Amino acid sequence: MRNSPPGSPTAPDARPALAWLRLLVEWGADEALAESAIDRRLSGPAARSVPPPPGPIPTALPAPALGTPAQRAEAAAASCHDLDALQRAMEGFDDFGLRQAASHTVRVSLGTRARLIVVGETADEDEDRSGEPFAGRAGTGLDRMLGAIGLSRDDCALMAGIAWRPPGGRPPAGVELATCAPFLRRRLVLAARQIVARGGPVAAGHGTGGTDAVRVPALLLGKLPLRLLLADADVASGPRGAARRLDIDAGDGVTVDATALTHPSMLAAQPRLRRPAWHGLLALRARLDSAPDGPITNL
């Protein structure tokens, strides 16, 4: 049977179908999902989803550190038996805010002729940037102070009182002082032992606890080293600007004979403090000259 041409009286009218399709489009039914309906009753059982393969077993998180930061610092410092090991322990003391914020852990600089320990204050911007003690302007003041009594950096073991610069250069908080004190004390002890082991000329005398001890002189510049060490050190205080003395038992018959003086930056700003500081330097030089190996000859 031949199809009737469009427009003939017997051809089917497509307009209702087009109108229906147009209505579906207006209602949003504008996608053809399949050419024919699917009878779901005739299809096979639904495929079961395959669970993904098990992933790696998560590693257990490390147990939180026990004790206060100061207690952890005490344990870390006590476990170190030389300056290099202590430096690594301090660099790895990551759960401490000052350590995390600082650019460097300022190291101990041990001169080839070291016979005197010099301790500064909190690491400043120059020290934080370089990792070296007494860098920048603080170092210039120290060089002048040492030069006045015929010494140089090569005669010293240099270290910062606090090896990390607080953010923005703010003063260290109380908990930070308590945490840094064990590190400074251990640095003093290990530096003194290393000076003695290297045969540095030191003064022999009566040590702590009523026993003879080898005495290694130390120079504490500014108030901070005293604040860190006063908790268990015997200090003879004097008038403002005058030298103050304290002994620190380094063990093995070694005592750190420390003299606290005004920091060079304060001497530049307050001339009235220079005279007592000068007398303290002269007394320090006299103790160095009384060492068993005789006076220093590099004047």
From TrEMBL:
Pro residues bias spans: 50-61
Transmembrane segments: none
Top-level taxon: Bacteria
SMART domains, per the entry: UDG, UreE_C
The entry's keywords: 4Fe-4S, DNA damage, DNA repair, Hydrolase, Iron, Iron-sulfur, Metal-binding, Nucleotidyltransferase, Transferase
Region (Disordered): 44-72
GO biological process terms held by the UniProt record: DNA repair
Domain Uracil-DNA glycosylase-like: 107-282
Entry's EC annotation: 2.7.7.7
GO MF assignments: 4 iron, 4 sulfur cluster binding; deaminated base DNA N-glycosylase activity; DNA-directed DNA polymerase activity; metal ion binding
Name of this chain's protein: DNA polymerase
Organism: Endobacter medicaginis
Lineage: Bacteria, Pseudomonadati, Pseudomonadota, Alphaproteobacteria, Acetobacterales
